[in-house]
Amino acid sequence: MRKRFAVAGLAIASLGAFGAAAEAQYPSQPTTPPASTPAPKSVSIAGTTTSDYAFMPKTIKVKAGNKVHWSWSSNAPHNVTFGKLHKHSQTTATGSYSLKFKTAGTFHYFCSVHGFTGKIVVRK
Description:
The chain has one helix at 2-25; strands spanning 41-46, 54-56, 59-63, 67-78, 81-82, 87-88, 92-100, 105-110, 117-123. The chain is of the alpha/beta class.
């Protein structure tokens, strides 16, 4: 008889330990996630023919100090060119480019190979 009580006691003790472990893993109140640095905004080059190549999205809004990242893998070479800023990426069929915008304003850019355009709106 003692063995039955010992086994039952062990099972109850195990359930209590499991409940404590489950409670530790799944708190009853939501926790606030830690603050993090915002991820760069991303633009891709879409399309498969000259008539439908485009920056997607065409317009991006960011806060001053943020970075924008472009990437593409295409059947034709492309680039990202900012005429007034005198900044541009390499012209390649597969590539990427990043640029940090420090000041507020609207910055227009284009692909100098195919002429499609986009813009970055930077807020303070």
